[in-house]
Amino acid sequence: MLLKFTVVNYKSFKNTVTFSLTPAPKQKGLDYSVFQTKINKKIYKGLSTAIIYGPNAAGKTNLIGAMDAFKSIVLRGNLRNSVEKSTPNTAANSLELIPNNIDVSPSPVSFSIEFIVDALLVKYAFSADLGTFLDVGYSRKLLSESLHINETLIFDRRKTIDFGNLDVISDYLVNEFSQNASSAITLAKNNLNPEELFLMNGFKTMFSSKLTGIISDWLDNKFMVIYRADSLQLIRKFSDPKNTSIYVEKTLNEAAQYFGINSNALGYVATGDNNESKLCSLFKDATRSVAVPAELFESYGTLRFVNMFPLVINALLNGGTLIVDEFDASLHPMALMNIINIFHNDEINVRHAQLVFNTHNPIFLNSNLYRRDEINFVERDEDTHCSSHYTLADFGTSGTNGVRKNEDYMKNYFINRYGAINDIDFTPIFEKILLSGSEV
């Protein structure tokens, strides 16, 4: 369960930005949208959903991209560029794209995340000098790195590294660590690589591969950050596909029937010797069965739904945090509302799955659907071109700018009560074209 993500100096977010899924104080209503987890007699709360609004080019995708880049850097364990393009987010692979582009001298890039997994409260952070924007040949280095478990410091890395109370993770330490603790600490202090994350290297090999495994598994499998969902293609792989075999998933087809498909069913067709399969529309009558590539027959909205729905199932079954750029693109609002309500349903969402997405659709600005602390905004300063982030809960409930639960959020957004909206008028452009008689 994600509680908090903080980033500094990622693209348009030059200053500190904290995206929180921790309930804000004094928020009433929609209590079913709040999870509770008890760790060492202390109760931690998390939100099940959040939505992000803002005009085009404000930085909504950059916020999700920052999460994706952080995840990619941690999982590969270093500040070097990645040859393997595992994400469409280029900045996650080419780190020279991360720093804000207005800086003429290097400023630190910082990430921090706080989440709960296996009854552990994990807070991990690092800060790095990546140079300036597009400085490909820069000698990158870690400036700081820290790990807290259950609010207790495990290690803090600066020029050297200091260790906190390792008794907190005694059940996760490598065998016979107590007998070799001083040697491991000495080795750690003397073998820090400025380009490598200690968590994924020295800590993993000398202190706790088990704890590192829990953290990396959460990041890899439960922190489901989908950057540019419009280009998402889920390719199903099977361990032993048969030539010209068709695999039909019952659950996905049941959902697709509700959503709307133009064929009898959908299936993944394996036609070669490799393990890849292709989504197809299936047609069957009394004499024959035919499979046609789905993109030639189904609507784009149906394809988007079929690609995304397995991720929703995955999140709900495994207690994952699903964060999607433009999740609602080409999907009917009623289908989206139903999915949101499923995440809010305590009887279904028993593993504390979370859903976060950005959108331009104002229909979700509804106090019966989202709490004020679940409604996020991103806007960009036209002078500095830097982005800022805030929630509806930040306005408070009293005073001239206060926001009360029974207000019309959608109406107030369009009259610019909350910001994060541009007044766009293309009329002068067309008047100029018509007056001059020139072509576009």
TrEMBL record:
Keywords: ATP-binding, Nucleotide-binding. It comes from the Bacteria. One of its GO terms (molecular function) is ATP hydrolysis activity. The keyword Metal-binding does not apply. Pfam families: AAA_21 (PF13304). Residues 51-365 form the ATPase AAA-type core domain. This is ATP-binding protein. It comes from Hominibacterium faecale. The lineage of its organism: Bacteria, Bacillati, Bacillota, Clostridia, Peptostreptococcales.
